[in-house]
Specification:
Layout lengths: L1 H30 L5 H20 L3 H21 L1 H12 L8 H20 L4 E5 L6 H4 L3 E6 L2 H8 L9 E5 L2 E7 L15 H12 L3 E5 L6 E5 L2 E6 L1 H12 L6 H11 L17
Parallel strand pairs: 1-3
Antiparallel strand pairs: 1-5, 2-4, 3-4, 5-6, 6-7
Helix pairs in contact: 2-3, 5-7, 5-9
Bound molecules: adenosine-5'-triphosphate.
Amino acid sequence: MQLLSNLASFWRHAIEIIILWICIYQIYRAFKSTRGARILVGLVLVLVVLTLLSSVLELKVIEWIITRAAALLAVALLIIFQPELRNALARLGSSKFFSFSNTQRIEFLDTFSLAVTQLANAREGALFAFERGISLKEHQETGVEIDAVFTPELAKTVFFPKTPLHDGGMIIAENRVAAAGCVFPVSNKELADRSTGLRHRAAIGITEESDAVAVVVSEETGMLSICIDGRLERNLSHEDFRNRMEQIFLPEENTDDDEEDSDTQLARETGSTSSSSDSLVSD
Ligand SMILES: Nc1ncnc2c1ncn2[C@@H]1O[C@H](COP(=O)(O)OP(=O)(O)OP(=O)(O)O)[C@@H](O)[C@H]1O
């Protein structure tokens, strides 16, 4: 009887530890590449050290302060991680999906791929953000509203150097150009490649704050990059770019081989790593 109750208690503790470990690991994963990650790690370290010291040395005042500080710390964390929390809640509440038939998506991807190829060949820098579940309205308002059919000619005109709208990003919503000349949030993320410029950082920034997909044509190199969830897949060949876009916007047509391709491409990422279980496709 005693053995059975010991066993039950052991399993209860084991399950508790596993659940806690999964929760802590998921929180760490979600926040590890964010602005507040170091602050969070610092706060946790200070708290653990102080708690240990106060309980071992029976420091009553410190113990009292730690208990009272816990509530303040919760409020501080809400403030520090406000953008990340807003993003997570927006994802939970988002219900709008990329609602086109596969034929329309393929046609659009053909047109879009042609446009980026022409921009890349002409070495004209460009930045696009595809709105998905989460509205990009607030970023649209930083630029000029357009509401036009997307064509390679329009993209080339917008991003032609020295034209009024060439600075900033173009927002594409529901296969239409919603706005251009938009200012996207610039990511503060630490990247392995220190030469990453503002255009690429803006692509990372907008995809950290929303579920948008960003595409960058580098003015310097003519290289194409795709960014999702703050993860930049750089220097894609035109063929890889097209395949990757299909993988993202036509997920139901993916095969296991595509998954492998995705992992290979992710290995080229700068500044972040990803496990094969990380799905890049949110819709
Ligand atoms: N916050 C922003 N939102 C949108 N576009 C931006 C933002 N910041 C910079 N850009 C665009 O990026 C251009 C500057 O790019 P920069 O050369 O710094 O970036 P890069 O990542 O090195 O890209 P490239 O490889 O094209 O040079 C600006 O002219 C502007 O059009």
